[in-house]
Amino acid sequence: MNSTLSSLIAGLLFGAGLLLSGMVNPAKVIGFLDIAGAWDPSLALVMVSAILVSWIGVRLSLRRASATDTGDDGPPHRIDPPLLVGSALFGIGWGVTGFCPGPAVAALGMGFWPASIVVIGLVAGLWVGNRLPA
Questions:
Q1: Which position has the higher pLDDT, 49 or 63?
Q2: What does each C-alpha distance from 9 to 25, 33, 56 come to in angstroms?
Q3: Which of 29, 38, 40, 59 could form a disulfide with 98 if both were Cys (CB 3.0 to 4.6 A apart)?
Q4: 87-109 CB burial, b ≥16 within 10 A, e <16
Q5: Measured between alpha carbons, how far is 40 from 62 in angstroms, rounded to an integer?
Q6: pLDDT computed for residue 48 by the predictor
């Protein structure tokens, strides 16, 4: 139950950060990607902030790793065709719609119905991806 509650709180905090930063607005993302036009650097500031917070979290978790180490190193760290195809599809979808998965779900939660198209595509992609051979 603690894990579920922690996940819920983390998700709500993440969603609140997306709302506060304006990243649920696809025009912000499109403005960031429009480097030849009216470029909006605010997404870069959000990314740098997220990287900094994540880095601090990773550093803190590494201090505790010895007490909770299960011996599992996680998935292999290799660049393979599924990773490249998935990355390309993610980038294309992000550039075309202005949404990545987190902001799309947050926008849908706010009642912005066009985000439902992105969320449906996300769920469909996860469904197909789970059925493809590894």
A1: 49
A2: 22, 31, 18
A3: 29
A4: eeeeeebbeebbbbbebbbbbbe
A5: 35
A6: 92
Task: Please give the DSSP secondary-structure letter assigned to residue 76.
Answer: -
Asked if pLDDT for residue 65 goes beyond 80, the answer is: no
Tokens representing 95 are 């550039």
Q: What is the mean pLDDT of the chain?
A: 83
At 69 the pLDDT is: 59
Q: Where are the alpha helices (DSSP H) in 1-134?
A: 2-21, 26-33, 42-68, 81-97, 101-109, 115-131
Residue recorded with tokens 């493809």: 132
Structure tokens at 4: 């579920």
Question: Cβ atoms within 10 A of the Cβ of 24, count?
Answer: 24
pLDDT at 74: 63
Residue type, 124: A
Angle ∠(73,50,29) on CA atoms, nearest 5: 120
What does the DSSP 8-state code read for residue 133? -
What integer pLDDT is reported at residue 56 of this predicted model?
A: 92
